[in-house]
Amino acid sequence: MRQAGHVTDTPTEPAPARESLASLLGGRKGAIDASLPPVAFVAGWLATGSSIGWGALTAIVVSVAVGAFRLVRGDKARAVVVSLAAVVAAALIALHTGRAEDFFLIQLLSNVASALLWAASIVVRWPLLGVVVGFALGQKTRWRKDPALLKAYSRASWIWVFLQYTLRVLVYGSLWWAGEVVALGVARTVLSWPLVAVTVAVSGWVLYRTLPENHPGLRHPRPR
Question: What residue ranges are annotated as transmembrane (predicted)?
Answer without folding.
Answer: 52-72, 79-96, 116-137, 158-178, 190-208
